[in-house]
Fold these 2 entries.
Entry 1:
Amino acid sequence: MTSFDPASPGQDVGRAARVRAMLLVAAMAVAVGASLMIEDRYENYLARLTLINIIVVYALNILIGYAGQAFVAGAAIFAVGAYGSAIGVMHFGVPFAIAWPLGALLAGIVGIVSALPALRLAGSYLAMVSIAFNVVAEQVLILGGDITGGPVGLPAVPPVAFGAFTLGDSGTLALIAACAVLTIYCTASLRDSQWGRAAIALRESELAAKSLGIDTVWLKMAIFFVTSLMMGLAGGLYAHSTNYISPDIGGILASFVLVLMLVLGGIGTLWGPLLGACVLTILPQLLSSFQKYHLLVLGIVLLIAVTQMPKGLAQPQDLLNRRRRRSNAGPAGGTQSASAVPDLLVLARPAADAGLTLSARNIGKRFGGVVALSHAAVDVRPGMIRGMIGPNGSGKSTLVNVLTGFYSPDEGTVTLGGRDIHRLSTSAIAQKGIVRTFQTPRLFSDLTVAENLSAGQFHHRPGNLLSALLGTPGNTGVNRQAAAESLALACALGLGGLLDQRAGDLSQGNQRQLEIARALAAHPAILILDEPAAGLSHEESMNLCTLLENLRAQGLGILLIEHHMDVVMRVCDRITVLNRGSVLAEGTPQEIRANAAVQEAYLGKPAGAPATAAAGEA
Amino acid sequence: MELLSVAVTGLAVGSVYALIALAINVVFAARRIVNFAQGDLVMFAGLLSISLITAWHWPYFLGLIGAAVAIAVLAVLIERIAIRPLPREESSISWILSIVAVAVIASNAGQLIFGAETRPFPPLFENPHVEIGGIRLDPSQLTAIGATAAFLLLFHLALNRTLHGKALKAAARDPDMAMMLGIRVSRYIAIAFALAGVMATLASFLIGPLTFINANFGFSLGIKGFAAAALGGLGTLPGAVIGGLLLGLAETFSSTYLSSDLKDIITLSILYGILVFRPTGLVGETNIVKV
């Protein structure tokens, strides 16, 4: 990303992809070679178990660590893959080479279905629903009669075989090792792709992700499907390499152990899952004399891991990575100035979408008995800055939430370019071109500035999920384009020297600028800024004014909610004043300045003497 | 008449679920976490009171009170050790893992302390059946229904009519604001956990005669409690009651008329179905987005 060279991107991309492919092949060769050297049967068994756990924990890492989905039922999904493949071979006579992927596909579908109730809500619900789902799944396996073998399970699952050729212990181990290497590679590749950044955006702030046009429901479904597929593949490998499966492998306890591997190793890190899976697969085997206290100890370890070392064992590794990334920040560092205005041309939305007018009429919104808005109206035309002011509690933020689909209005209509949008979801509205910022910035704190800006481009530059997983040249190309636009945006907002900073570490002023830049990354036709100047220095405020004027010159429509009257009066073409949920006044800055009703709302009733045009300084 | 006695059984079981759901809701309101280790608290409370009453020969109700105090202290300790060190963000998944850890530790510690065997609760009534209007009913079931109803009423009054109750509500609604008003939020979180401990003891006393208690039943009870709370709507008092009763009825009817093997699958599928269409539960608030 840092060695961006616009002159020869194609050549560069090709070379990077070749290097990566060679590394992958080399790692696979080493893994396969090493597994063929293990002769001891028990060691072979232990290695298979460890590698299978590695695959599952990496998949969970994408789901829980990157995407932030608190899905606990990993073992149940794993079991679906295991049983699916085993039943396919044993009851239906399907060859392994077909039953294995089919079982994984089934796991993928079950993964999506199990997550359905939680697609609209996050956090606690998903965790609990997934636990309930796991209980049900285990029961189904136990009650499955002849098909699942009941409580006993399925003994004598046929070994891994392709056609007439049956892989022995060593061959099976080699296959599993290759799959594990591929899984780690895919995770690394995904992490540095638009899909990976969108997944982390989902974790960091689902609201902000939606406001940037990321269709979070689809994104979640895609992530659930892919990770469940991976777990299902691991399950199939387990069934046919261990030759025996029972409902225990899909039990809630097994799920907890998988999550513990992830947490202990380091959730959301690249190498943590490897560490966690190895330690927690091998150690209990070596300490099998402590069987009685096994779970008690696991519980205590999990408790300590969660409360005392939230980053897991891999934390030092992670710190190292970050330092390395910073030290070779390269050309992005410091050399760019805030005057790179020509780059703003990048921001222009494709002509077909530009030039849309946002218009809200007769909006009413109540919360219980409280009337937040009644007959509120506002319109924003392209190439215009509309100011919206009003005392605290006058309904400004509620109106913004209605315009952007966070609330649905009780009355009235919102149209964009003449089309009704008030029934659309937040992400659909953002895709149509209305993008907002928040009163308190909602950045993707754990991503860098550059990654925040790339995540902002996700809805119009997603790339392809499969190529993101495989790290194809196409994916690298998308990354380059996204990085180029991020660089231009960062420079335009004066963040050019901060590209590799973690967004959460930025100053207040820089956070606001980054949020505006990220909104622009989503290619808005209408930009809604909720108090962008709050907490900015005077100089920063004046830079903001210049930026807004530049954006207006490019045909962007801007709705500016702001308390700083110097900013409002300088840049706005027209101003809407809200008071108690309805429009108190509307007009040019001069008209608003002279309006007696506005002065009264802001300063109270003038005591005898007629008020002068002081309202502007309120 | 069989229908009626099945319904009473369902309501009795449902009352206990409602009690567990209420405890989950109280903790959820105070700290925005789902304490599904609540079932393990019930298990501990049950086994402890059985030991106090039968092995230590404490008087029946003294044994219950002793257990209630001990479990309340245990719940506060859990909050101190497993919950307080965690960040207060709702989206964070660390609390789930932390509570999973507590649940795993609790059920295994329970097994080490009390043994794995199933134990009956000492019966409160000599006579296993009473006849009311020609219908034979189990007095333990009637006790479960009556005691739960009385407790819910008491809880409702305490929450809305006393200063501490109002402070608890304030701390739940807006912890930052409550803190600025001088309410010690962390103390009320601890109080919520202590309350959960007391409710766990009451629940164990009521469910004990209806079923058996062993160290492993805490987990599934916790899941049922969560299912009841989520069914009604997390964090609400009427939600806990509606969800608990509904779950108890569904479970009893399906195990009577279909198969007792299927009851968990059926009840949890109902939960799933309702959460797909109404994610915030039957009586939960619908508008939950905070921008």
Entry 2:
Amino acid sequence: MSELTSGATLEKFSYDNKIVKYFGAAAIIWGIIGMIVGLLAAVQLFLPEANLGTPYTTFGRIRPLHTNAVIFAFVGNAIFAGVYYSMPRLLKAPMWKKWISWFHFWGWQLVIVLAVVTLLLGFTSSKEYAELEWPIDILLTLVWVAFGANMIGTLLTRRERHMYVAIWFYLASFVTVAVLHIFNSLALPVSFMKSYSAYAGVQDALVQWWYGHNAVAFFLTTPYLGLMYYFLPKAANRPVYSYKLSIIHFWALIFIYIWAGPHHLLYTALPEWAQVLGTAFSVMLLAPSWAGMINGLLTLRGAWDKVRVDPILKFMLVAVTAYGMATFEGPLLSLKNVNAIAHYTDWIVAHVHIGALGWNGFLTFGMLYWLWPRMWKTTLYSTKLANTHFWLGTLGIIFYALPMYVSALTQSLMWQEFNEMGRLAYPNFLETVIEIVPMYMLRALGGAMYLSGVFILVYNLVKTAKQGRFVAEEHDEAPALAKHVPQKDEFWHRVWERKPVFFTLMATAAIVIGGLVEIVPTIMIKSNVPTISSVQPYTPLELQGRDLYIANGCVGCHSQMIRPFRSETERYGEYSKAGEYIYDRPFLWGSKRTGPDLHRVGGKYPDSWHYHHMYDPRSMSPGSLMPPYPWMTTNLMDHEDVPAKIRTLQKLGVPYPEGYDQIANEDLDKQAAQIVASLKESQIDVMPNAEIVALIAYLQRLGTDIKKVQTVENQ
Amino acid sequence: MYKEVLRSIEDIETMPLISLIVFMLFFIGMFIWVITVDRKYIEHMEGLPFNDEDTAEEHEKK
């Protein structure tokens, strides 16, 4: 308070604890739901029967539900609980408008409920962590703007002149997530719950992973660093180790993070320069990330005796350590030689779970164990139970991550192994899957341990609340903000940091420039995507099949991107070219190969093979872990939406002839009749408008366009 | 359409260079500030999380 004139009248105000309680409780409830769904998905990977025989509970649909629930429902609500507790106290002012806080709360829960319903029903854009369809995207934007308005309003009515570093992180997270969400979600609607991405192929991939990487950065990392800078000093009852370091940490981190997205696309058809940029910035990212970790860990200097007895500090210590491990592993995975082994494997799954379970989960638990007794003016019901939770959770993380590292290396090396004859040692993909099934079982055990710890937390917090009395409004007083008298020798950064709106604009500039430098050239320069003359738009039936592939989340387990390695071209065929994807809206490269790559599956098997394989994968591939899709043989499609889809794609520049929307369904019927006839030859009777017919049309088309060139050349 | 808009910007290739210079200057300036900043300011900032009623009460108890 040194800069305030002494003797100013104190103003009375209060902090709203009720909204913190609601967001905190929502975080736990959604966290449990998200983790149960995750556990179900984990079990399905060794027990396909756990798909429960319906499309709504099959892996491809519940996997995005799990990721969305954990990221946006569990972590999201925890962020808001922490922000709504710390920000008013740091600024000596209540949150700007109570009704906005409650609009934010209920709006966010509504988005989550809509996500649960629509994702399970198969309404999805299929872009990872941005799966929600356009009407929900718009609602999400409104709610997010309300959150930002509430923060900025609070800043403008504050009684403390300076913004503590935690608030910088909150503001940067708000603006960046807004920018990312809007640009990545740009799409042209076909109907109420269906749209096509504004970007195609390589460009769509770049924008998506610019988003995807920064969703990790600005949703799972920077807001949590803000929480760390507030709650860790509070819990340890000592100031942050180095406030100076936190300033450097902030600017360096937000500036560098935004560039690193292309490391998700190494060795793909993305232009080489973009890949190099992604790798370089990812390696640089280690410095600010570890600056943050070191700052967190050293805040506990001289308090190690407390760490031994206080479960809250234990949770926070493991959280910061997990952050350090994950941010060391990230740059490592961005090196091309490491990425060649790790990409498409369980290594990435292990990596994200070190972050989600360790960093996000444990910091959340530490924060909630700290908040609950304070808001109920009591002590924690049971330190012993909190310790039990801590050990169950820690062992859970270990049991989760270690088997995933083992399975990743085992499988990746099997994929790449050649025998003495110079052929693939394991030509059948399934062999490499069966080998790692025990690891999948152990992983599910780890997840179950972690989840059971959360139930202990619920019991402990409920008991804590019962023994105390909730303080809905916490009163405080502070002098009003006196008019600032500028000092002569003030440095510009200090001036900025007093002007929150200007500060926010500067942080926005830092992230926007990084994004533009990467994305603009990819969109502008034509030579980035060399065209291949034989690549044609999808036929109407293939388009319908592709949309089914999207709706069922096939991309969750199957990539469509063959990297230029001999081990991949031997197994799958010619490596993938950028020009092959120009009509792919959205792109479906995938990020994980639980099953084989499908980019060259077209023409590899007869139609009847696909029919039997979809009906019961294990009839064609004994021991397969793929869930069966028998309903696809009987579910019928009306294809009434085809003309609208064609028109939407035409608007996006796909060269269907003018007026094609009117006759598209005639072409569709002809192609369906051919597939029905080919199935008939194998004694399979199927309706021409069955889902399986459209899916077979799409699968048989995949990756065949460039083969046409070869045929022409051979002639 | 956005492609045409971007292509029509003249000298767009100099923009990365300008951004590089701006950011270099920004980070150099920030380092200078952080190194030379007033100790009192840092102490004030570090103390902000402890400025609320909660901790004051705890301190009274001690």
